[in-house]
Each structure stands twice: as structure tokens, then as C-alpha cells.
Fold these 4 entries.
Entry 1:
Amino acid sequence: MHGSKTMVRSLLEGILAGSSAGGHADLAVFPPFAYLSLTESILSGTHVLWGGQTLNPNAHGAHTGETSGGMLTDMGCRYVLVGHSERRSIYAESDDDVALRFKAALAAGLEPVLCVGETREEREHGQTEAVVGRQLDAVTGSVGIQAFSRAVIAYEPVWAIGTGLTATPEQAQAVHRFIRDKMTALDVTIAGQLRILYGGSVKGSNAAELFTQSDIDGGLVGGASLTAEDFLAIYRAVA
Ligand code: PGA
């Protein structure tokens, strides 16, 4: 819940100016709903894609204040975040809710970005794999592994989001490997092609080291996406 029309315009124009099609990485932005229309008008026909930050699991109906997957598709979205830790913790989205939203995203023709990750307490109790495994099982059990040929996973340790604490490349890689192995057990081809992003205080200074890990395929960036300069430093680190 950051930004304004002025900020969104200058951010997107800055990102467009500092990146290129066929450049270092594929780029997508996830503005608040209020700025999707503006985003569509600025990014249509460019190399930068966009998506929503969440969606309602229902296709339509009397759900005041909510936004459906079909509405996101209508606004030109390619992606939608599902199960971001703030949705899980502040808005009490359960694993089952997340699975329903994932399903609704697919039904609307969107590519869901499924966010998973453990809290600090869960990590300290050695429950990281159990928690991430449970979050993945809720979705694969509901939609099946084939659905992941059109989805992205983002591993975001809750303790690293917006805190300035980043998982070390080794800590992140270990969980990414765990996720890849879990998906491989279900379908080798899909697991091999699956993009697994790391999120949690990614910035220009730590991105290169994170991205060199074999199972880290990119980043989901929060704070450092609020200025074009900080975001582009991460984009350049991909090279
Ligand atoms: P951060 O946020 O990069 O500010 O830690 C990540 C996120 O909210 O997904």
C-alpha cells in the first residue's frame, strides 16, 4: 500500500528507461489495484509485464471491496500474487484459502505467484521445511502438479520481509532446493522448468550472490522496488 499516481508514473517510466526486452531478466510489477489502470496505460506493448497483489477466490458476485481474477485479466495482468505473507498474517488467509485463490487465478487465465515461507519462530524451532511443505501441499493437493507449468513459486521467509534481514544465499538455496525436490517428486519436467523466486530484503548489494545459487531463479522485491534506481540495481545484478 505504497505510492500515488505521480510515484507510479515516475517509477514505471524509470524502470522502462533502465531495462530492455531480452535484457538481463524478465520483469513484472505488482502495483496496488488502484494503479492497475495507470500501469496498463504505461506498460502496454512494452517488455515489462504486470500483475495484481491478490484476488478474491470467487469469479464474480456480491463481494464489496474485492477484485476477481477476471477483473485482473481485464486490466491486462499476466500474474497475480497468491498467499503473500501479509495476506496470510494480517488478513488471515489459510492454506486452504490460498489454494482457492490459486485455483481462481488459473481459471481466470492468470499465472499465480505462490508465496510461501516460515516465520522466525518456526525457523528457530526447526520447522522451516514442515511449514513450507505444508503450504505447498495445500496447493498441489488441490490443483495438481500440472498447474505449476503455468505458475511461479516465491520463497519468502517472513522474518526477512521488510526487516532488512536477508536469508544468506546458503539458507535460501537450501529451502529452494527443498521446494525443487518436492516438486520433482511430483513431476521432473515441471519442477525443472519452474521458476522459484527468493523474496525478503533483496537489494542491489545482495542480489547477485542470491541469484548465483542454482535453485534461485529470480527475486520478488518489496522495499527496493519503490524507486527505479534501487530496483534497477537488482535487475543489473542478474547479469
Ligand atoms: P521486502 O519485501 O523486499 O521489502 O523484504 C518483500 C515482499 O514483500 O514480498
Entry 2:
Amino acid sequence: MKKIVILISGRGSNMQAIVEAAAKQQWPAQIAAVISNRADAGGLEYAASRGIPTAVVVSKQFATRDVFDAALQAKIDEFAPDLVVLAGFMRILTAGFVEHYAGRMLNIHPSLLPSFVGLATHQQAIDAGVKVHGVTVHFVTAELDHGPIVAQAVVPVLDDDNEDTLSHRVLEQEHQIYPRAVLQFVEGKLRIDGNRVHISN
Ligand code: GRF
């Protein structure tokens, strides 16, 4: 059984999609813990209701990024994960933290990377006038919202879209591609080759 630790900051709908897929499809994996940097993250309740251990490491209580990341790393490593999954985890990570989980930490970013890094990606897409938008699952590297891409899904941008309608359309795709990518990792199907990820059948 591979062990997975999922990090969240909010509602945790991607975490929920992964937990449900793992149970339904009987993955050879265990969600070892869900950890949040905010005590009020809605997803914590769901995780607890599924019997998954939860923990909170409150980022606001730490003076610097370095000490927070060290505390978070210590908490994560209590569960000895094979994979760390960032699912709406709204923190910029230090290089040392990222290095510690090199090749075993995935993130989901709601844009077609390398377009629209950072926040408010749906508004960025609308403002740029792009006709398609989407979502990316990638391995985490020290550079924000970069790293070898595992999966992407594309949605149309419609003339009357606003941030809400567009983010809703993207989120539906997030819930499809993130569980699939995590399962591929669990099954040992992902091989990082520079910037590229080769996926075996
Ligand atoms: C998702 O859109 C994710 O891509 C982004 O933040 C949002 C988190 O949603 N990084 P949820 O907490 O998984 O519901």
C-alpha cells in the first residue's frame, strides 16, 4: 500500500475527489492524512468523517516561511508518505521543502500552464481573451506553478463567462484528472524525464 498525504487550505473538493476515487476503485493506496494550514478549512470535516487522520499546522503562527515549512514537513513525515498531494494548498513553498519531496509531490493548478501562474487564474484567462482554458497537474519544483506536467484538461471560454462560471467548468475537470494522475503515480506509471513526464500503460 502506497501512503498518500494530502495538503489543503480550504473546501477540499479535489481532496474529496481523490478520497472517493481511491475507495471506489480500490487503489493499492491509503490516504494516510489530510493536513491543512488553516484550522477553518472545510475539507477537514469531510476527511474526518471518512476516518482519515487530520492535522492542522497553522501557517499564521510561524514567523517565517522556513520555520513553517520545517514544522509542516515534520508533521507530514510522521505519516511517512510515498506521495504528497497539494490540493488547493495556498502556500508558496521553500526550496528546501520542495527538494525534500522531489519527485513525490504533485500539485493542481487551475490553468493551462505555463499560462497564468499565481492567483485569480480564471480572471487572468478572461482578461487575456483566450478561447480555451483549463487545468494542469504537475510535479512540484521550486519555481511556483512550474514543474513536469502529468496531465492537462481543456475547457472552452464562452463569451458570457465570468470567474464563477469558468472556474466551475474547470473544477469539474480538476475532479477528473487529479484522481487519475494520483492513481498513475501510485501504480508507478509516471517517469520524469527533464521537463516531461512519460506515462506508461
Ligand atoms: C482548485 O481550483 C485548485 O486547482 C486551486 O485551488 C482550488 C481548490 O479547490 N489550486 P478545492 O479546495 O480542491 O475545492
Entry 3:
Amino acid sequence: MSQMPIVIKSPSDMQAHANAVRQKGGRMGFVPTMGALHAGHLALVDYAREHCDNLVVSIFVNPLQFDRADDLSGYPRTWQADLDLCSAHGVDVIYYPDADAMYPAGFQTKVSVAQMTQGLCGAHRPGHFDGVTTVVLKLFNAVKPDIAVFGEKDFQQLMVIKRMARDLDLDVEVVGRPTVREADGLALSSRNVRLSPQERERALCLWRGLNRAMELAKGGEKDAAKLKTAALAEIDTVPGARLEYLEVVASESLEPVETLDRPARMAMAVWMGETRLIDNAPLD
Ligand code: AMP
């Protein structure tokens, strides 16, 4: 029988809970999310469950990290389903603050990772990563996790948070886990529900492009420009797909690479109609 998670809504109550667990020697695990939970989130939850004593999932649609008002207002919110899924997956606590609890009047502090946020999504979503790092540090300070688990689906986010944790001496292990995909390869995303059936079909071009590049890299191709051209060919031909960016970057620094002479990833953002999709894959 799965047990209903406790729902905690304020940072101070969350801290009190974390202190009580830690005083007894318990290990806190944490998976931050914006809700509308799917199998990608649940893979992180299941991994974290295995590596901690007390598991917290946060559900907070963070206004600071949205660069478009319509994306924020239209973001899917599925509280009852999220609660049931957390319960079924052994989550102990859902940390569910509202925007006033997170950003009370007078709030004015921001956390910024300088270089790694300049390219890829950062170049197209002004302020997005400052919003992410600010909220994640606040969530860490409330939940006090020993381990925090993030998806490689948002690879730039994962690496930026790892950098922040190192730079600010955060006492937390930041773990990245592989992207969970639909059977046909589309990366799971809360925003996929916005795709029409036709766009859903066409959205496969991201995965086809990544696959093409991975195949070529596996076959020995080291020229990033050639890999990009091959991936682009899968996207360019699809009606309604508009490329925002397509890059080959070093996996650690996220700097663009011309030759695959160190661990690298291909990352892309593609608009399918009104929906922005991102995906990435390793090229080594
Ligand atoms: P979000 O709710 O979109 O902010 O995502 C919360 C966490 O789930 C982030 O660490 C994401 O990288 C991760 N995530 C989202 N989609 C997937 C996926 N398809 N596979 C693995 N992790 C994912």
C-alpha cells in the first residue's frame, strides 16, 4: 500500500521537516519539478527513492524562469494526478509552495551562472537560467537535500546547476539521469500535451536528427559542422518545424566544438507551431 505524501507549503515548514529527518541521520533526496508529472519525472523519482531515506518532490511553476507570459499561463497544472503518482512512487513529501511563499514582497536577490548560460537555450530565453538557478538554490535551502536528481533532457540546466553547486560549495550531490522517451523516440515533456496529433508526428524530427548525428559520430565522423548538417536535413524538410538552434558543444563546459576531440553533445531547440521542443544526445 502506498502512503499519501505530506504536502508542505512554506520554506520554514520544509526546513523544519528536513532538520528533523537529518537529526535522526536520515538522508534527504530531492527531485525538483514544475508538476504535470510524466514517466521522465518518475524515473528521477524512482532513482532518488533508491538513494535516500526521505524523498521530497517539489512542484512549483517558477514564474522567474519563464520568458513568455503565455507559456507560464498555459503551463499544464495537474495537481490530483501528480499527487496520485507521487503516492504510488513512494514520495514522502511534496513541497508545494506558491509564488508568494517563494517570492514575498521585497524579494530582489538573484543567482547567476555567468558563462554556461550564454549559449543554447540561454541565448534565446533571456533571464531563464537566472530564474532556474535562483529557484533551485532556494529549493535546496528549504529541502536541504543530500542528493538532488535532474534530467539530462534539460542538459544545459543540469550542467549549470552542477556548476552552481561547485561554485557556491553547496553540500549536495547533483545527479543527472538519462532522458526518458516515448516508444518512437520523442523525449517526454510536460509541454508535449500542447502538440496537435500532426505536430506530435512531425516532432519526431528532433530525434531523427539526433540519431543521424549519433550514427555518423559512431562511424567516425568528427567534424561538428558535418554532424550538424546531417541533423539539420532531418528537421529542415518537416513542414511547420522551425529551428531555433542546433549546436555541438563540449559536455562539461557547453562551449561549441568544431571537432569531436572531447566528450560532446548535440543540442537543439525546434518550434513545432506554437510549442518549443528541446532535445540533446551524447556524440561519444
Ligand atoms: P520540469 O518539470 O520540466 O521542470 O522537469 C523537472 C525535472 O525532470 C528536470 O530535471 C527535467 O530535466 C526532468 N525531465 C523532464 N523531462 C524528462 C525526460 N523526458 N526524461 C528525464 N528527465 C526529464
Entry 4:
Amino acid sequence: MTSDALRRAAERLRGAERINVLTGAGVSAASGIPTFRGGNGLWNKVRAETLATPEAFANDPRLVWEWYDWRRGMIAKASPNPAHDVLARWTRERPGFTLVTQNVDGLHERAGTERLVRLHGSIWRVRCWQACARGRNDWEDLTVPQPRLPPACPHCGGLVRPAVVWFGESLDPADIAAATAACRCDVFLTIGTSAIVYPAAGLIHHAKRHGAFTIEINPDETEASGSVDLAIKGRAEEVLVQLGVG
Ligand code: OAD
């Protein structure tokens, strides 16, 4: 990371009225939560299709829940890191700041983030798999570990599922609309995401088309590195603190 890149980014952020940030798993790496891709990535150990699709759940709900129960246990022990804290402070102090996340871990919320769009849902919410009348809308469930796997719907006795977006499922149209609207901004930051999964990754290009200055913060090269205006090579929890933008 060069001080010149940091200086340029800080200047842009200071002068911006509307800022939108897209975050991915890398933002939670310093909290001890594994990312999906890369060296120790979750998808190197297990195949996404066997755990994060509706077909996988229909086939073996207990196996899918064991994996989510394990992740919930790990996340429950984790705390927000300085990257979450800086971003949360920006949302509180700057009215034109929006945070769009692909993360389901809830750490942005725990850091006190305002105006958060959760594109992929939350690992702390569940809903009825059969979409029964009273269980169709998701509700919070913080129980770790679950006393029974798979957990039963309290309304109909059927299965409940994590209220996250699985591969092959659509994002909530309201979330897409909010995230897309937030792309009409002066500065767009993409932080800690491999920028591979759409539609989230498309937001970067959308913002650029609307004239935003685009900045990436990531220690590694990503799909977006070649198309952003400024790529800062570094860890989110270090770069965001060093930016020092109030
Ligand atoms: P990935 O695991 O694909 O990418 C994580 C990114 O974080 C990589 O580009 C790393 O280089 C970067 N990274 C690692 N440590 C970092 C740090 N300390 N600071 C900054 N960056 C760091 O995670 P996502 O891009 O979030 O979807 O993955 C997108 C979606 O794919 C996820 O939401 C999930 C997954 O399958 C669903 O579950 C639907």
C-alpha cells in the first residue's frame, strides 16, 4: 500500500457527499471468520453446492444445519474489528453514507452501522422452509448451538431454514433497489470482496457508469482490480484506520 494511494483515497472521501461501500468476507477476516475463497477459504474445504443451495437443504437439512450451526458458533464468539468500527462510524457521522454488505455474520450491525443493506440475508435470522402462513417472514434466532438439528418451525412443526440467500436464489428486490440507488454516489468503495458473485459485483460497474470514483481495498488482486479507479493493496482493518477520514 502506498501513501500516495492512501492520500488520494482520503482526499476523495473528504470531498464526497455521497459514499457507498460494498463489503465482503474479507472485512470479517480480522475477526477470525474465514473467507469463502482463497487459501483457507470455506469453499476450498466444502463444495458450495452441497451446503448453500435449496437442493442441498431439501436433500439433507441436517447436514446443512450442522454447517450453519458451526458457523453461528464461531461468529457468536467473534467481535467486530477496526474495519467494522470505522465503517460504522462513517455511517453515523455522514448522512450520505450507505453500506451494502454480502456478509451474513451480523458484525456490521454489532459495530453499530446505520443504513445497512444486507444483500445475502443474515445467519441470525430463520424462516419456515415450507413458508407456512405464520413462518413465511423471517425472525431472529440467536440460539447457539441449536438444541435440535434441523430446528423445527414453531408455527407448523415443519423445518426452518437460515434466512440467507443461497446459490440459485434471488435477492430481495427491495435490497437490490436500495443497493442500486446507493450506487448513484460520488465515491464507491469495494472492500474485502473477490467481486465474483453477482449481482453484488455488478454494483461496482454500475457505480462507475454513474460517474462514481471507484476504490478497492483488498490485499489481493480481484476481478474488480483492473476496472476500479484506485486499487489499494492492503487489509481492510489497517487501510480504513490509516485513511483517517472523519
Ligand atoms: P470471498 O471469500 O470470495 O472473497 C474475500 C476477499 O477478501 C478476497 O478477495 C480476499 O483477498 C479478501 N481479503 C482477505 N482478507 C482481507 C482483509 N483482511 N482485508 C480486506 N480484504 C481481505 O468473499 P466474498 O467476496 O464476500 O455468498 O464472497 C461473495 C459471496 O460468495 C458471499 O457472500 C457468499 C459466497 O459464496 C453466499 O453465500 C450467497
